[in-house]
Each structure stands twice: as C-alpha cells, then as structure tokens.
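Thread: zinc ion complex, take 2
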Amino acid sequence: MIGRSVVFRTRSWAVLGVVLGLLGTASQAALAAECPGHPGALGTSRTLVVDPREHPRIGTMQYRETLPLKDHEVVLTFDDGPLPKYSNQVLQILADECIKATFFIIGQQAKANPEGVRKLVAAGHTVATHSMDHPLTFDRMPAEKFEPEINGGIQWTSAAMTDPTKLAPFFRIPGLMRAEGVENYLISRGIQVWSADFPADDWRHVSSDRVYQLAIQRLEAKGKGILLLHDIQPRTVAALPKIIRDLKAKGYRIVHVVPATADQPATPTTAVEWLLHPPTETTPIARWPAVPTFVFTETKSLPAPSLADLNAEAAHQPLLPRRTRAQMDVASTLAAPGRDLFAIPEGSVEVLLSTTLSRRAATRLAMAAETPQAAKGKAAKSRAPRTAHAAHGTLKHAAQAKGTTPRPTRIATGVKKRA
Ligand SMILES: [Zn+2]
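Output below.
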C-alpha cells in the first residue's frame, strides 16, 4: 500500500510538474505573442490603472505610499528626456523586450525635440512631466515661480503630442526636491506626485556596471517597486540590457502604469496594497520588541532587608542623611539655654504679635511696657525678619549665658565653608 501510495504521489508530482511546465510555456508563449519577433522578451505582465486623486503621493523614497505592486513587480521610469541620442536607444531596448515604461519629460526637451515625445506616445509608453527647466530649487521656490515651472512643462509636452489627452497627470519634482506647497498645488490640480522606491544613481559619474548593480541590489532589497532611471545618460543605455537580463533571470515582472480615465477605471485595490510591505498576520507580532527572559526565584516574595543589609555602620552611608559639621559645631560650642530664657515677659512684642495688632502697634505697646533702654533694643530687633530675629536672639541669649560676646558673622562663614 505504502509503495503504491508513493508511486501514486510521485506520479501526481510528475503530472503537476508537467502541468506547471505547460503553464509556464503557455505564459511565455503569451508574452512572446505580445512581443512578436522577440521570443525571449521580458514583456509587460500587466497594466495598472491608477486614480491620482486617490493616492496623490507615491514612492517610498519620500512618501508612505507607493504603487500597489505585487512581489517581484517592477515599474520602470525614465526622467529628463527626450534627448534623441540616448532616448532613442532606450526606446529601442524597451521595444525589443516589449516593456512599457513611464517617461517624465522636461518642457525644454519637448520644445527642442517634439518628435521624441511623439515617439514615446506611439510606442505606448506613459508620458508625464518633470517641469519646464528642471530647477533643483522646488523645495524653496515661491508659488509664483514653481507654478510656471510645472505648467510650462505640461504645456510644451502636451503641445508636442498629436493627442494632448495622452499626457498623464503624473509629475516628478526635479531632484526630488519636494515641498508641501508644490505637492499641494499639484494635488489640487489632480496631478499625482511621483517619487520612486529606488534610484540607480545613473546621473552620477559612475560606471554603467555600477548603475546595473545598484538597480538590481536595491530592487532585490525591496522585492518590488518603482525604479528611477534617466534616458539621457549613456551609462543608462549601457546598463539597461543587463538590468533587463537580470530581471528575467530573477523572475521579475514589468508593470505598466496608466492614469484612470472615463473609459478606463482604476484597477481595484485595497489601502494596504499601497504600502511597500503591507502588514500580514505574522508581521505585526514579529515586529514587537522581544520580551526578555527573566528568571524568577521560587520564593513568592523576597524578605524585607535588615539595617545590616544597608551597611549602616560602615563608612559609606549613602542611604542615611548626614549631619553637617555646622550642626555638630553649634551643638558642641553653645551651652544649653536656661528654661527662663523661653519665658515671654507679659506685654512683650511676641505676645502682642499673637493678637490682631500690627507689628508696629505691638512694638510701640511693648516699648511702653518696658524701660526706655530695653525697649530701644527690642524695637530694633523686631524690625528684622522673623527667622533672623529668632536666630540672633538664641545666639545672644546663649552668649549672655556664657558671658562672652556673640560673633554670628564668624559662625555663619564657617557654616558656609563646610556646606
Ligand atoms: Zn530630473
């Protein structure tokens, strides 16, 4: 039985393999049929129709959202053309592979080479705009400057087209120098702001091999996304066939993006598909910080610490408040005051102050009750703040008890130095 089951399963897998193989061949054949004369072409796997108003900013290089691509799906974009010398070569490479891309046109280029714009449209690519003069100051331009830049690009690119309605309401800010005001203006006009998911640094002075490596490495790191290239660079022309070769070898598929129209509604998508890595059932859990593995003792509670545990008798007593030297000095040098010192004579200012009388009235009454000499001294003291009065009074009384002259200044200095 077991043996028969194994044989059966083996045959099932073999059949499945054949079916999958046939399906693979069929899809290849379908692509080849779409790309006559180029049997090994990468082709364009699907067309994604987007409504710019629903997702106005895209490209994870700068924004939260990007195109709703599936794993291993790539959107090719080319900026700054058309420049016949290189743009025509890029067009030919893409035509040989039946790849549809998106081109962000500079108004000045369209003005100088309107035929280049028409070629792009005729080849079925999406044509969008990239400003009039490509200034790299969109992040600090006032509206009166960026609006003519945006509109000039749109005007000259659409002017180059036989059918201006073919112009896609997509815009890429030159140098990706984004600014809130620029984005809001574009969005208010129903234009989608396109950043990218990864560049290949083909505008820098690097080799074509480096461009190819960066394109593939960065794509592999994200698994899908919008690739930013420039069809005016010789290194891009040289790198593109190698990029396409690797895309084929690694199983990537090209997606062509077009804007929604009255005849062609947007491809149905869910909000999370516009995130590069939509959360799955496992990712939210996987992203929580790891819980540390505490080792708990078997006892349910720990015993309360004793004073010995605090090391209270040792030289270091960090937990106990320390007596200052000043306190110790006062205690050792001053004699204990006699009990009679605390007896308040009747009619004195302290007693009178405890009534509702004002300090001045109380002092006057106290002075009247005492001898003129004593009253004079007490009145002077009563003008001092209460705390100072109390402190000086104590010192004076103590000094009188010892028969010496009080020297509050020296003690105060001593306290200050040792604090
Ligand atoms: Zn550019």
